[in-house]
Amino acid sequence: MSPAIRYVGERIRRATVVEWLVAIVLLAVPVALILPGVKWASSGSIRVPVHVFVFDAVSGKPIADARVIIFHAPPVQGEKSLAESRELFDPEYVERLPSTMQGGTDEGGTAVIDVEFRTSASHERPEPYAHVRWEWVYVQAAGYGSVVVPVRYESQPVATVRQQKELPVSVGLVPM
Q1: Are residues 25 and 47 in the same domain?
Q2: By residue range, what is the domain housing residue 23?
Q3: Which of 5, 74, 159, 170 has the fewest CB atoms nearer than 10 Å to its CB?
Q4: How distant, in Å, are the alpha carbons of 74, 131, 132, 169 from that of 136?
Q5: Are residues 145 and 162 in the same domain?
Q6: Same domain, yes or no, for 129 and 94?
Q7: Between the CA of residue 31 and those of 12, 74, 128, what are the distances in Å?
Q8: What is the number of domains present in the chain?
Q9: b/e map of 91-109 (b: 16 or more CB within 10 Å)?
Q10: What's the angle, vertex CA 113, arms to CA 109 and CA 118, rounded to 5?
Q11: Quick one: which of 43, 50, 104, 42 has its CA closest to 72?
């Protein structure tokens, strides 16, 4: 056996704890620089009342007894995305949804429905966001047309949604 190999073998056997720790650190630093960062994601939900105000778009007066349904569907980004999920916006489908997502307006034109919104965060955006744009409001009233609008057009930080305590949605209907 060569003297160099014998020397290394003896040094390895006699290495102290500090020498081993230094060797580990010297190996760990380049490995940490080469490996990509940790990727993570989290999800959850938040339950928030959605306060829907329905009014006559011509006179500005509240509409009583309007039917309000909140349903889950993807955001519409244009004609192509609507064509891919058209059946989710069909009134026949929407009107068959569970009664927990439905309500009627009172004399003041308001309906309040508790809705559970999905939330998420990730290594790219650590602040949790509520995906309010995935929930839609369908409103229909006798003597008026019906309308479908999103609760919001963009997702919102969970802290903002909690601070607001409710999400207001105003819907104007045109007399038929």
Answers
A1: no
A2: 3-34
A3: 5
A4: 9, 11, 9, 10
A5: yes
A6: yes
A7: 22, 41, 31
A8: 2
A9: eeebeeeeeebbbebeeeb
A10: 140
A11: 50
Largest CA distance in the chain: 101
CATH number at residue 151: 2.60.40.1120
Rounded Cα gap, residues 68 and 170, in angstroms: 12
Of 116, 122, 119, 121, which Cα lies nearest the Cα of 100?
A: 116
Termini Cα distance of the chain: 100
The tokens describing 131, both together, are 């995906």
Task: Give pLDDT tens digits for 95-112.
Answer: 777 767 888 999 999 999
Indicate the pTM of the whole model: 0.73
pLDDT digits (tens, 9 = 90+) for 25-35: 888 788 777 77
Regarding whether 167 and 135 lie in a shared domain, the answer is: yes
Pull the structure tokens for residue 85. 């999920």
Cα separation, 29 vs 10, whole angstroms:
26
Using the predicted structure, report yes or no on whether residue 75 has a pLDDT greater than 90: no
- Specify the residue for token string 């630093």: 29
Hey, which bits of 8-161 come out as E strands?
41-56, 67-72, 102-104, 110-122, 129-130, 135-140, 147-150, 156-157
